[in-house]
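Technical annex B. To support the medicinal chemistry partners, we prepared a structural model of the target in complex with zinc ion, based solely on the information shown next.
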Amino acid sequence: MIKLVCPECRRENEPERIYCHDCGARLDRTVLAKAAPKGEDAKETQRRLKSMLDPGRAKMRLLFFKTSKVILGALFTAAIVQILLPPDAPPRPKSGDFPPQITLDVENAVLNRSTAPMQYSDAQVNAYLASALKGKQAALSKVLQFERAFVNFDENVCRVTVERSIFGFSVFTSTSSKVTLKNGTLTAANVAGSIGRLPVHPLLMKYADPLFADLWAALDREKKAISKMGAIEFHPQALVLIPKQ
Ligand SMILES: [Zn+2]
């Protein structure tokens, strides 16, 4: 396409223009006559002219960008609000509550070759976690101040939530897993996750692993003890540890 170069500001103008788009200087249109008309058909010229002169189109484009910005902004804000909303969290165990000694129970069961299943409610496990983690603050992340961890049990699903504080805000990250214990190996397959009330796809949850790494490390003794059991079961509000039969 031939461009009309402005003699004043050197801007390349469309061949249909008479005055420069930028500075308004009169363009030298004689170059158009000199240049051999190269194959550009009338339709193409018409289309180009139409889009150049159509003010509606420019307005629509501006409106589209403005609207997109507003929508993206709203989505971002909504996501942040969801992230900052706490999930349904159990009350913090009172310091007077005497938590069950789950690890000790497990170690005794192994020692005494007991085969009786041991059952704990999620409230009991939470009381245990609160007391067990109290002595392990040093091992827990200081960057994002660890506040507490708690569990919710459902049929075959164990959800672990960690509350951390960032600039005084509490942020809860949850991971739901199918936990199995087979031949002394405890494995957890993530099935769901969330940050605050914002659900996170299980495939993305692996990127959230570092948010739980310090907790898993702090619970290493518990993990080793439970691995000595024969099986682990999760039911609504209940954890069942079954010794090797
Ligand atoms: Zn110009």
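Notes passed to the chemistry partners:
The longest strand covers residues 169-182.
The pocket of zinc ion is lined by residues 6, 8-9, 11, 20, 22-23, 25 (CB under 6 Å).
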